[in-house]
Amino acid sequence: MEADPFIKIIVVGEQGVGKTCLLNQYCYERFEANSPPTIGCDFTTKVTQTNGQTVRLQLWDIAGQEKYNAVSKLYVRGALGCLIVCDIKDPNSLEETLKWKSIIEENSDQNNIPIMLVQNKCDLASDDEKTSYYQTLQGFAKTNKFFSCIQTSAKEGTGLKQLFTELIQEIIDKGLLVNQQKNFKQSNGGVQLNAAQSSQNQQQKKDKTCC
Ligand SMILES: Nc1nc2c(ncn2[C@@H]2O[C@H](COP(=O)(O)OP(=O)(O)OP(=O)(O)O)[C@@H](O)[C@H]2O)c(=O)[nH]1
Ligand SMILES: [Mg+2]
Question: Which of 54, 56, 98, 152 is deepest in the core (most CB within 10 A)?
Fold first, then answer.
């Protein structure tokens, strides 16, 4: 019997927008009011089902602090999808999503990787504010070619299930999962590597060619 396929997803965005909290809420249903800044990159996994398809998510939580920006691009390889997160109360963090989008697109090994725009901390806005921010968000997402956008609250768990369902479905619809499985079978004689091993291998290959 074949193992359930895995999907590497990377989560990026400015410092403090709530990436780590969002993943902790989605994976462990917990929220930390004083979550410390991520150093470099964190990694977590979750098995989930979307429309009858079981997948193993590998979730890469990339630090937003500027000093890590140069290394962030190293984590992009092998990702089949990406979340770019901003803070509903910080308009600058929405503008900065474009910087992250460029980093992802320039370093992705996928043709047209699905990138979703996530406006987090929506519990901090009133209903009226949320509606108005959402209209702005939709316009921004359309203009800048994000495949979709959503408002979430890592604190309350709002929007998280829908967010991952949409992203996984887009990855499946684009055939990226099937391509990945084919590539692994061809290059590894049917043995599936996980993303960490895979990117390590890629790095080793790179190291070999440059020496
Ligand atoms: N009210 C509210 N606060 C949130 C939410 N998500 C995160 N926070 C707050 O924002 C702070 C920063 O969240 P993190 O998840 O650590 O931010 P990050 O994007 O991972 O930051 P870096 O790791 O530095 O890139 C947390 O300590 C929470 O207090 C949310 O949905 N609602
Ligand atoms: Mg973090």
Answer: 152
To the nearest 10°, report the CA torsion of 183, 185, 188, 192: 100
- Residue 156 is predicted with a pLDDT of 98
152 token code pair: 């979430």
* 81 vs 165: CA distance, rounded Å: 12
Tracing tokens 């996530």 back to the chain, one arrives at: 118
pTM score:
0.88
CA of 72 to the centre of ligand 2 (A): 13
Q: Which domains does the chain have, with CATH numbers?
A: 6-174 (3.40.50.300)
Closest to 42 measured CA to CA, from 59, 21, 61: 61
pLDDT < 50 positions in the chain: 189-211
> What pLDDT, in 10s, does the model give residues 172-203?
999 998 877 777 666 654 444 444 444 444 44
| Pocket, ligand 1, Cβ cutoff 6 A | 13, 15-21, 33-35, 37-38, 63-65, 120-121, 123-124, 153-155
Q: Helix, strand or coil for residue 21?
A: helix
Residue bearing tokens 């992802």:
104
Q: What does pLDDT average to over the chain?
A: 88
Nearest Cα to Cα of residue 115 among 91, 79, 151, 88: 79
**Closest residue to atom 7 of ligand 1, CA basis:** 18
